[in-house]
Specification:
Elements: H1 2-17, H2 24-28, H3 41-52, H4 69-74, H5 76-85, H6 101-112
This protein binds heme C (HEC).
Heme C binds at residues 49, 52-53, 56-57, 62, 64, 66, 75, 78-79, 82-83, 90-91, 93-97.
Length: 117
């Protein structure tokens, strides 16, 4: 009887353990523990925008151009709106792409921390 009880306890513990393999950002939404908590433009955002946005939003491509701090900064309200708050203000950005929850959170953090360069 004792052995059976022990087996159940072990199985139970393993069952709970499996939760740790889940993606935190997916489990808890954008409040998740993503590694970056500051998200300045140069520290984090530029890499995301170059990767996800700038094959469209470069000179000669779709407006607005988002290739440097001044262009990103002057479009910041529209960017937050399209990436974080959309679809309330137009098509969701990045267009035709899936954004990682931590990358999306980086835009929110950038706003919360005062749109730092
Ligand atoms: C596949 C091409 C493509 C990608 C990738 C893309 N966009 Fe766009 N974006 C567009 C097009 C086309 C428009 C204009 C049509 C519209 O408003 O939906 C636009 C519009 C916008 C606008 C609105 C501008 C305004 O004046 O209101 C913003 C802001 C924007 N994009 C930001 C971004 C950001 C930030 C990313 C990356 C996270 C991104 N876009 C990725 C094609 C793209």
């Amino acid at each position: 009887m004792k052995a059976i009880t022990t087996t159940f306890i072990i199985l139970f513990a393993l069952g709970f353990n499996s939760c740790y393999y889940d993606n935190e950002a997916e489990l808890y939404g954008s409040g998740a523990a993503c590694s970056d908590t500051v998200s300045s433009y140069n520290g984090r955002l530029k890499g995301i925008i170059d990767n996800l946005c700038n094959d469209c939003h470069s000179p000669g491509g779709d407006s607005p151009t988002l290739t440097d701090f001044s262009s990103v900064s002057s479009n910041r309200d529209a960017i937050i709106c399209r990436v974080v708050d959309s679809p309330t203000c137009g098509n969701v950005m990045p267009k035709n792409r899936v954004i990682d929850p931590c990358d999306k959170q980086a835009f929110e953090l950038w706003q919360q921390n005062g749109f730092r360069e």
